[in-house]
Amino acid sequence: MRALSIFCLLLLVYNEILAQEYFVFRAKKIQATPDLVYQPGELLIRGSKIIRVGQDIEKPKKFKLVNWQDHEIYPGLISPGSSLGLAEINAIRPTRDEREVGTHTPEIEAWTAVNPDSELIPVARANGITHSLIVPMGGTISGISGLISLSGWGIEEMAVKQKVALHLWWPGQGLSIHANNQSGKSIDEQVKDRNKTVYELDEFFNQAEAYIQSKANSPQNKTDFNPSWEAMTPIISGEMPIIIHADEKRQIISALDWAEKRKYNIIISGGRDAWKIADRIASHNVPVIFRHVFTAPPQANLPFDTHFRAPGILAKAGVELSIGLRLGAWSAANQRNLPYYAAQSIPHGFKRKDALASITINPAKLMGVHDHLGTLEKGKDATFIACSGDIFDLRTTVKHMVLAGTSVDLSSRHTQLFEKYQRRPKREN
Q1: Which residue, 161, 258, 297, 407, could crosslink 302 as a Cys pair with Cβ 3.0–4.6 Å?
Q2: Residue 382 and residue 43: Cα distance in Å, rounded?
Q3: What is the Cα–Cα distance from 98 to 95, expressed in whole angstroms?
Q4: Could you give the angle at which helices 249-262 and 187-217 cross, rounded to 10 degrees?
């Protein structure tokens, strides 16, 4: 027992020594920020932090050189919302846990349900995604999202920020005029249902505000504990934003008006028609997570490239834009495609620097972690990827990943299958 204790102590000391070592990463290109590139470049790290970045940087007397002279280094990519770890196989219901039962469930924290052994996490990681916001679904208020790192021995270790934002699915403002609409309801009935949903939403927020105010005014008096209203405290106080999921133009306008009236900090997620009111969104200083780059236009008279052009329109208007994929069970399997969603809009008016910002620093900002993630700057986490070429080139392969100073294995189910079939005996003709 004593020998084991001594061994553990020595191991801790050894790891501490390793953490104090300096490493210099040399590459043909380092994209430090969306605006700042070093060609060639060097990155000095110690432990989990970046010490220095630039060209021919000042180095300590002792350091270990990692020569990636044929590679390009980028900040780790950040997905602004997915079901990674909540959904595994879309067709098998027991493997899906992305939806909660209930209409208003703000107390739900999505990150707690993540399966750290999901096969889809390494797949996303292999294409440069280092972090993802885990989004709850179901009901009108579905819960609170949390930011996780895509590497770790358990979900507690993977959780970077447990409470990022409340998720609100705004009621649709469109009305079906067809007799055979999905609900089978008349126009009047549809209007009543929509108004009822908005009324119930307002009532829930009013009750939460009253509950929190009551506790603040009379801390001595015992107030019946309500987990739903308790979870609303950081939202009511303005400490936590609300991510409002809205796509249609009237839906987004309604959400903006509601948030302005109640003085809440919001982020629009989905944003299919956001480009139509880009100036208005920008004037409200509301960030947008655009999830429809590869969605077909909803009206037949719109050009085929409408949603390819939308990110460029939003960015030009001054909207702080993040690019994401559509939510749902399928989003988990497709997270690997995140850089291609941003890349697709570059030939359609989306500046390259804005595209890079949309999958790095901008999602870091809206999640409140931009002080240590999103760019490669002094004092930030040593979280970066090394690629064979431009990150926006479909032919590029992510060769290496360093997450908070630790090298991460990039093997996945996909690479394992590739290697398996490479070993398959060839038939003789």
Answers
A1: 297
A2: 9
A3: 10
A4: 20
Secondary structure class of 27 (helix, strand, coil): strand
Give the residue-averaged pLDDT of 60-72. Answer: 94
Name which of 116, 142, 129, 148 is nearest 201 in CA terms.
Answer: 142
Q: Give the mean pLDDT of 38-48.
A: 96
Q: Which CATH number fits domain 18-76+374-429: 3.40.50.2020, 2.30.40.10, 3.20.20.80, 2.30.30.100?
A: 2.30.40.10
CA torsion through residues 247, 267, 256, 312, sign: negative
Q: Which residues pair with 43 in a beta bridge?
A: 25, 53
What DSSP letter does each residue of 365-428 carry, written as one string? HHTT-TTTSSS--TTSB--EEEESS-TT-TT--EEEEEETTEE-----HHHHHHHHHHSSPPPP
Q: How far apart are CA 137 and CA 144, in angstroms?
A: 10
> 234: left (phi > 0), else alpha (psi -120 to 50), else beta?
alpha
Q: How far apart are CA 107 and CA 167, in angstroms?
A: 11
The ranges of the chain annotated as CATH 2.30.40.10 are 18-76+374-429
The pair of three-digit structure tokens given for residue 202, joined into one six-digit string: 């307002």
Cα–Cα distance for residue pair 220/38, rounded to 1 Å: 59
Q: CB-side exposure of 319: number of CA atoms within 13 Å? A: 31
Q: Are strands 159-169 and 242-246 parallel, antiparallel or unpaired?
A: parallel
Rounded to the nearest integer, the mean pLDDT of the chain is 88
Q: So what's the pLDDT on residue 218?
A: 72
For the chain, state the CA radius of gyration: 24
Q: 77-370: CATH homologous superfamily?
A: Metal-dependent hydrolases (3.20.20.140)
3-state secondary structure of 307: helix
Domain with CATH 3.20.20.140 in the chain: 77-370
Amino acid making up residue 324: G
Where residue 386 falls among pLDDT bands split at 50, 70, 90?
very high
β-strands 129-134, 141-149: how paired? antiparallel
What is the tens place of the pLDDT at every residue in 286-334? 999 999 999 999 888 899 999 999 999 999 999 999 999 998 767 888 9
In the predicted structure, residue 17 carries a pLDDT above the cut 50: no
Q: Pick the residue with more confidence: 25 or 175?
A: 25
